[in-house]
Amino acid sequence: MREANTLILRTAALLLVPMQLLFSVFLLLRGHDEPGGGFIAGLVASGAVVLFLFSYGVSATRELLRVDPRDFLGVGLLIGLASILPSLILGQPAMTAQWWQIPLPGGDYYKFSTPLIFDVGVYLTVIGSILTMVVGLSESEESDA
Amino acid sequence: MLLAVLSGFILALFAPLICRVAGDRCGWVFALLPATLFVWFAWLLPEVMANGAQVVRYPWFPAMEINLDFLIDGLSLMFALLISGIGTFILIYAGGYLKGHPYLGRFYVVMLSFMASMLGVVLSDNLVTLFVFWELTSITSYLLIGFEHEDVKARASALQGLFVTVAGGLALMAGLIMLGTMAGSYSLNDVLASDADLLGHEWAVPMLLCILAGAFTKSAQVPFHFWLPNAMAAPTPVSAFLHSATMVKAGVYLLARLNPALGEAELWTLLLSFFGGLTMFTGAFMAITHTGAKKVLAYSTIMALGTLVMLIGIGTHYALVAFATFLVAHSLYKGALFMIAGILDHETGTKDVAEMGGLASLMPVTSVAAAVAALSLAGLPPLLGFVGKELMFEAVLDAPAWQMLLPVLAFGAGIGVMVAAGIIAIKPFYGKRLETPKHPHEAPVSMLAGPVVLAGLSLLFGVALFIPEQTLVAPVVASLGGAAEKVHLALWHGINMPLILSLGCLVVAGLILRFWSRLQPQLDVLREGLGRFGPEAGYFRIMEWLTRIATWQTRVLQNGTMGNYMITLALTTVGITGFTLITQYGVPLRLPVPDSGFAAGIALLMIVSAFFATGTVSRLGSVAAMSIVGFAVALIFILFSAPDLGITQILVETLTVILLVLVLFRLPGFTRMSSPLERWRDIIVAVMVGALMTVLILAATEVQFFEPISAEHVARSVSDGHGRNIVNVILVDFRALDTLGEMFVLALAAVGVYSMIRLKAEDQTA
């Protein structure tokens, strides 16, 4: 796919992409209590990258990502599996959720947990799958042209 | 104990590395593991003999009664001793035999895993774990038989072995599950001690048949015996190990293990003694029709396996003592003889004993070891094999079942093995010196260690009978449910019927050997005739039909038209689901009415866009119309206050449209390719699917058998899951395992799409 040569889309993308990525992280982190979660956040983040892809093309997108989209897949799956380890180390049934309170500046606490780690794995796997497909398709189109 | 079983797998991980570091001496390094295990098992022996069976438990999936439990008693320890003891020499031997082989590292990986799986089979107390290890031995032996994977014959033989043993394994699984259910426990120790009436149960016969199918295929009983001689395609160290102490003995082990629980069944006695006897005779007979050293030995293994199965079937005190003695004797001489066959092959460059002669002066140590081991095979005094064979005759003569048939078969088998022993030990070493492709000389120490020690033990145990009697035979007899204190082995029983039978065998065998080279052509003809109608021909017939049916089925189901696939899928779903729905629940007729104008509006929108999608001539229009349906669904989710689902649906719709648009450019425009009749057919199928889905949804909301678990999820979400978003708590905590599986599916789908795109791109550049 040749990048869309419209100034408005390109300029808007520069603003929207980082915001959308930030929003996806927000969705990911609050997912346990409010609407959101790894799957949705992953979709939003992929949407952001796809928007960038449409406005700037494949090679620019690859540069932006720095790693191959397929690497997200592997890392995502590994993180998902790694979230099982703490329960095993503690000798509990596999996948028992572990919760830790992490003090935040200002006396507040953040609930950190293995389900969150697992959700990060979901997030990365979703991003990885969609980008693998979309980037792959766009690249094959470019080689066709 | 857990470490003892798993250490083989662990060492296998590092095998290629060790091979690279240790070079030619790696066989000695690997042998340290089984040697250590051997010492440890031997050290356990007195304790087990004094205190009886022990069970060591390691919970694995305790909720499903699947545990890494190990049962240590006389029977399992003797097998463990044989596996680790002979394994030690085999590993050393393999280092010499496969010296400089490019895949030596890979060989040791599989060999060590195989040994560990085998230990797992004989030590497992849990029926499920036993089955897992059992299948592992099938898989690893497949890799070992097909080790020379560039050889077509080796590959075919490996596959044949795998098919036969795994088909039996499947039956075994069914049998073990039935056994476990009937006994109320998956622990062998409990099953054996269970006072439940196993044999009176209505499943008793199917259970017995399934277990026997598993054991018979594994232990190469007639009519499944054909895979074993073909497995000779494996490198000789593998054959030696597979035949002497492992693989094929797994079936024998299982039968022996279950004998106390099932031995009372009449069916068990009849089937085991009949098939065992038949196998014993067939093996011995086939052995003398061959000239390949390894083939002769392979058939004599079949004879030994038949004997062991028959002895379990007979089940008297004599039979059990004979079983234990024969088992030890066979493992020792068969291991030694296979290694000797490997030495001959290695040194002379030919496998055919008819081409060898006069090697005794060139290979003195080998020839002595061969002579001793062969005497044990033939069952001549003062070797352990003699004691085993005399006991076997004794057991056969007072067998309760098949009284006439078994002694005749046993007599024939006795002749057969004596001839086989002569073929192996006399033909290559004595007589006229024959030219061979390679100039032979004495084998290296690594290859001689095994045959010499194992043959030496055959002799030592034969002369000093109290050693095997107290350490091996008595504990085994005790675990088999016999009286250990009555075990007494002796070389000389006075002049009795077994001795006369032995003498008779010797005379006939001597005559056959004398004229063996003249008989050979006739035997060849006979063998070929049998090959045409034997069970192996049946195997080929079955495989041929399997391929033919698969081809036909693929042609019909996978004819390459997308429309055909979709119709097949749709009709199957409608047929099966619809049938179940109508017969089980009936058709719910109450149609719900939308409760608000808004919902009705959305529904109308969906219907209109669905019709538009099917009617439009533009691809883009169709995609857009479909996405309207998708967004409308998202609206419905939001209407029923499921924001998470709504967001997800919108995002998925968006990305779907993006993906479709990306591929849209490469597709041609819509063209009308189907006749009006076909279009009507498609419409009917589509309406049927739509109707089924509607009825399904209606049924799902109306019919409820169980209390929905959603209330439980809501109640425990905050307290147990520490989250207020129930959907997310379910996804990442309550049902995280499902999610993990879905992650892998997603990743696989992406990789699949990617490789399809890549494949096409590469086609174009090429």
Automatic annotation (TrEMBL), chain A:
Q: Where in the cell is it found?
A: Cell membrane
Membrane spanning segments where?
Answer: 7-27, 39-60, 72-95, 115-137
Query: InterPro entries per the record?
Result: CPA3_antiporter_subunitB (IPR050622), MnhB (IPR007182)
Q: How does it sit in the membrane?
A: Multi-pass membrane protein
Major place of localization? Answer: membrane
Going by the entry's taxonomy, the superkingdom of the source organism is recorded as Bacteria
Keyword annotations from UniProtKB, A to Z: Cell membrane, Membrane, Transmembrane, Transmembrane helix
Record-linked Pfam families = MnhB (PF04039)
Where in this chain does the record put each Na+/H+ antiporter MnhB subunit-related protein domain? 8-131
Q: Which Gene Ontology CC terms are recorded?
A: plasma membrane
**PANTHER family named among the record's database cross-references:** NA(+)/H(+) ANTIPORTER SUBUNIT B, NA(+)_H(+) ANTIPORTER SUBUNIT B
Q: Family assignment?
A: Belongs to the CPA3 antiporters (TC 2.A.63) subunit B family.
Q: What is the official name of this protein in its record? A: Na+/H+ antiporter subunit B
Give the organism the record lists: Vreelandella halophila
